[in-house]
Write a structure and sequence with these properties.
Its EC number is 2.5.1.54. 38% of the residues lie in helices and 15% in strands. The strands form two sheets. The protein has an eight-stranded parallel β-barrel with strand order 3-4-5-6-7-8-9-10, surrounded by seven helices. β3, α1 and β4 form a beta-alpha-beta unit. Bound molecules: phosphoenolpyruvate (PEP) and manganese (II) ion.
């Protein structure tokens, strides 16, 4: 299989706007869960950049459990990300929900995110597989490692070799936190596949105070990068404020991580 270590021995390095993902340096993707106001988005982008982030995250199209929750700004949200990129130089990652938006994402995003809920949306996988735009594929809520890798294979088999795998926690019997971060998935995926492995400690826990310890654990376990939700005013965030850390906390975490990354 194209995703496997047997097919390709050396780890894949994906270049996005001058940033290498999968190489020696940790890739840090940070930003709000959802793109909200322009000034807020640009402000957070500047803060995460100065703290050491290499990619800006932000959802313009949000896959919400309730139809009454904020659904994202859509096209306008992508424009805010483009403006934030213009001002900070940070490439952007954003989630696509619909194959009909592919042209829009090819133009405005540097990395296309496939969310956990769409890990087995095979038409969407085939669509992003038809281009060489980097893809961040998130593990499904209850997907096995095998199923996860087969979804990546869907993308790669269409021609796109720029795929990153993202462990974002799985559903277990535990209800204390939102999901259970599968730390063993990190070395397992690295062993089975040559693709970069990114960990999302925010959705994996659903709790801001667990983001730092799980980030450290993920880096110690060999993650190539992290996807972290940062918001300057989490209490007022339109989505996932309870798992978002403030820029000051993010800065502190970046400092602590540099020591761990050196030791791995
Ligand atoms: C996200 O990263 O914005 C997101 C919705 O995450 P997940 O698909 O992992 O739930
Ligand atoms: Mn979120």
């Amino acid at each position: 299989k194209l995703v496997s270590r047997e097919f390709k021995r050396e780890g894949t390095i994906i270049e996005v706007g001058g940033v290498k993902i999968g190489g020696k340096k940790l890739a840090i993707m940070a930003g709000p869960c959802a793109v909200e106001r322009l000034e807020l988005t640009v402000g957070i982008a500047h803060e995460v950049k100065s703290a050491g982030a290499t990619v800006l995250r932000g959802g313009a199209y949000k896959p919400r459990t309730s139809p009454y929750s904020f659904q994202g700004l859509g096209r306008e949200g992508l424009d805010y990300l483009v403006e934030a990129k213009k001002q900070t130089g940070l490439p952007v990652v954003s989630e696509i929900l619909d194959t009909r938006d592919i042209e829009l994402f090819l133009e405005k995003a540097d990395i296309i995110q496939i969310g956990a809920r769409n890990m087995q949306n095979f038409e969407l996988l085939k669509e992003v597989g038809a281009y060489d735009k980097p893809v961040l594929l998130k593990r499904g809520l209850s997907a096995t490692i095998k199923e996860f890798l087969l979804s990546a294979e869907y993308i790669m088999s269409r021609g796109n070799r720029n795929v990153m795998l993202c462990e974002r926690g799985i559903r277990t019997f535990e209800t204390q936190y939102r999901n259970t971060l599968d730390l063993a998935a990190i070395p397992t995926l690295k062993e089975l596949s040559h693709l970069p492995v990114i960990v999302d400690p925010s959705h994996a826990t659903g709790k801001w105070n667990l983001v730092a310890p799980m980030s450290k654990a993920a880096v110690a376990a060999g993650a190539d990068g992290l996807l972290i939700e940062v918001h300057s005013n989490p209490e007022c965030a339109l989505c996932d404020g309870e798992e978002s850390i403030k820029p000051s906390k993010f800065k502190e975490l970046m400092h602590d991580l540099s020591n761990i990354a050196r030791a791995v």
